[in-house]
TrEMBL record:
A molecular function (GO) term: ATP hydrolysis activity
Protein name listed in UniProt: ABC transporter domain-containing protein
UniProt keyword annotations, A-Z: ATP-binding, Cell membrane, Membrane, Nucleotide-binding, Translocase, Transport
InterPro entries the record matches: AAA+_ATPase, ABC_transporter-like_ATP-bd, ABC_transporter-like_CS, ABC_transpr_MalK-like, ABC_transpr_MalK/UgpC-like, Mo/tungstate-bd_C_term_dom, OB_MalK-like, P-loop_NTPase
SUPFAM superfamilies with a match to the protein in the record: MOP-like (SSF50331), P-loop containing nucleoside triphosphate hydrolases (SSF52540)
GO biological process, one term: carbohydrate transport
Domain ABC transporter as annotated: residue spans: 1-231
Superkingdom: Bacteria
Gene Ontology CC annotation, any one: ATP-binding cassette (ABC) transporter complex, substrate-binding subunit-containing
Length: 382
């Protein structure tokens, strides 16, 4: 399945624009983004429920813009399930196949298998209103998989379930897909769901594709400030700083400047006198008791030039079971860290520490990742 430069407008609203991405057979592609980002529109364009204004939708390698939705061989699970309220579970699951005049024995076999896979056996004669939310959601999935369509689209199928059930249901969806091997395009605004379900994630906002990559890519190499801030809990710290020769001065804390390792200083040479955004994940920040004078800190041995140590005042600590979220004052804002619960003694003044190897640099205007990442001491372009 491939979208090439796909765009769709509703009157003056641009729902999606310039969308280009490919989903390989058997992949689980997740469309992730905030509400109004164009996710549902993209699914409807793939399904043919809406027609594209620009660009081309390819299905099975062939342009499908003019193919009727009924002939696209796609199954869709809608956000609200759209079960027929007056039909039993069995009738809901088999309705599409009966309409297509699939032989009775085939219908029976497929429906039995779907009931078994989705743990719905014994509920065949119930009406949707006599089912729990989780059961309704599974009926909607069962109805989609009996079609045996090579492509299955799901629009936030778990959003009506409570948090516990969502965790269970998302692993059921992955298992089902791994067993049946259909190509899945799955829509969610929940980044954890996206990371756990997707083999690839398309981050969509404002109708535009912000990044398309594996969960590891979008987490470890966010293409821009939007993705950096959207993926990760708590979110990546995005700190404005000025490049001053071979040092960085933090705009929110102008009294603090840190010297850059040579490799980074030369990579940023063109930006001297200008701003960059420094991105550092909370889980890459460590805290240590602050002892000694600030002058002593300037002597960076024995940590070497790759470690940054900055005194901070703690503002707030949240225990979330296994971990502890730590928030430190950073001028008018805060910097967040994640540490193991009980891992640190929380005193009000601490040393915030991180390695330059874990830092991302972004252009503050375009938001683009400057494409510098450090593995060991080797400067690499992403
Ligand atoms: P998402 O699913 O990511 O929340 P949508 O694809 O539903 O986003 O919507 C993208 C944009 O298109 C929004 O601004 C939405 O208001 C608009 N939109 C979607 N469907 C219609 C429609 N049928 N008529 C007018 N505007 C629409
Ligand atoms: Mg939607």
């Amino acid at each position: 399945m491939r979208l090439e430069n796909v765009g769709k407008r509703y009157g003056s609203v641009t729902a999606v624009e310039g969308l280009t991405f490919t989903v390989e057979p058997g992949e689980r592609a997740v469309l992730l983004g905030p509400s109004g980002g164009g996710k549902t529109t993209t699914l409807r364009l793939i399904a043919g429920l809406e027609s594209v204004d620009t660009g081309t939708v390819y299905l099975g390698g062939r342009p499908a813009n003019d193919v009727d939705p009924g002939l696209r061989d796609i199954a869709m699970v809608f956000q609200n399930y759209a079960l027929y309220p007056h039909m039993t579970v069995w009738e809901n699951i088999t309705f599409g196949l009966r309409m297509q005049r699939v032989p009775r024995t085939v219908i029976e076999t497929r429906a039995r298998e779907a009931l078994r896979l989705l743990d719905l056996e014994g509920l065949e004669d119930r009406l949707p209103r006599a089912l729990s939310g989780g059961q309704r959601q599974r009926v909607a999935l069962a109805r989609a998989i009996v079609k045996r369509a090579p492509i299955v689209l799901m629009d936030e199928p778990l959003s009506n379930l409570d948090a516990r059930l969502r965790v269970k249901a998302r692993s059921e969806i992955v298992r089902l897909q791994e067993k049946l091997r259909f190509t899945l395009v799955y829509v969610t605004h929940d980044q954890t769901e996206a990371m756990t379900i997707g083999t690839r994630i398309a981050v969509l906002a404002g109708g535009r594709l912000k990044q398309y990559g594996t969960p590891k890519d979008v987490y470890e190499r966010p293409a821009n400030l939007f993705v950096a801030g959207f993926i990760g809990t708590p979110p990546m710290n995005l700190i404005h700083a000025r490049v001053e020769g071979e040092t960085l001065r933090f705009e929110e804390r102008p009294e603090v400047s840190v010297s850059l390792p040579t490799a980074i200083a030369s990579a940023l040479a063109e930006r001297r006198g200008r701003s960059v955004v420094v991105g550092i994940r909370p889980e890459r920040i460590q805290f240590a008791p602050f002892a000694g004078t600030e002058a002593a800190l300037r002597d960076r041995e024995p940590d070497g030039p790759w470690t940054v140590r900055i005194p901070v005042d703690l503002r707030f600590v949240e225990d979330v079971g296994r971990e502890r979220y730590v928030y430190a004052a950073w001028g008018r804002t805060e910097v967040g860290g994640v540490v193991p619960a009980g891992g640190i003694e929380v005193t009000s003044r601490m040393l915030l520490m991180f390695s330059w190897r874990d830092v991302h640099f972004f252009d503050p205007k375009s938001g683009e990742n400057l494409g510098l990442s450090w593995t060991g001491n080797v400067l690499q372009s992403v």
